[in-house]
Every structure is written in C-alpha cells, then in structure tokens.
Amino acid sequence: MLFRMEREDFHALLELLRDNISANEDMASLSAGEPIPAECRLAMPLRILAGASYLDCALAFGVGRSTVFGIFDQCESSARVLLMRLTPYHTTIAKGSSP
Predict the structure, then answer these.
(1) CA 6 – CA 16 distance, rounded (Å)
(2) What is the pLDDT of residues 21-49, one digit of tens each?
(3) Are 82 and 16 within 8 A, CB to CB?
(4) Fewest Cβ atoms nearer than 10 Å: which of 45, 70, 81, 96?
(5) Contact by Cβ (8 Å): 79, 20
C-alpha cells in the first residue's frame, strides 16, 4: 500500500501512537470477533492522507465505512495530542505569535 513514508518512519510513528490507537479487545470481541491491529489502524488514515478515498480503505482493509471514519478520527486526535506534547511552542503558535 502507498503511504508516502518510509517503513522505518511508519514503525516509529506506530510506536509513538500504539497505546492510543490500539483497539479495546473486549469491545472488539463483542462486535466483530477480533480487534483491528494497531498497524492497520494507523495504515488506514495514512492511506487516506496519501490520496485514497474512504471506500478504498474500507475495501482494502475489509471494514465498514463508519469504522474507517472512526479510526481516522482516533488517529488524528492521538497524533494531535502527540504533536502538542512534542512541540514546546504549541500554545504560542496557536495564539498566532511567533515563538
């Protein structure tokens, strides 16, 4: 699949986000039988950001469109929190002034 990033970068990002994007195994077993692995949960939104449609992702990963949207939102929120933690001047930049 096309993600427009190197494999090493994918795995580094995955390790940073894994705890926040991993599926709740108890809930997954109640609804579908198995949780979607964190690798796939990260790959879906990256594929969309690389230019795929949500339908492409739904078909490629064998999930429903609402699942694609939910995972995209979860990954986006987790990445935003991570970025704010890693960016020391995030509050200054958000207010419009330079650091």
Answers:
(1) 16
(2) 987 766 655 566 678 899 999 999 999 98
(3) yes
(4) 96
(5) no
Which is nearest to 57 in space by CA: 78, 79, 36, 77? 36
Helix count and strand count (H, E) for the chain: 6, 0
Residue 94 identity: A
Does any domain span residue 2? Answer: no
- The answer to whether residues 41 and 23 touch, using CB atoms and an 8 Å cutoff, is yes
Answer yes or no: is 1 within a domain: no
Neighbours of 72 (CB within 10 A): 19
Measured distance CA(90)–CA(99) in Å, rounded:
9
What is the residue range of 28's domain? 7-94
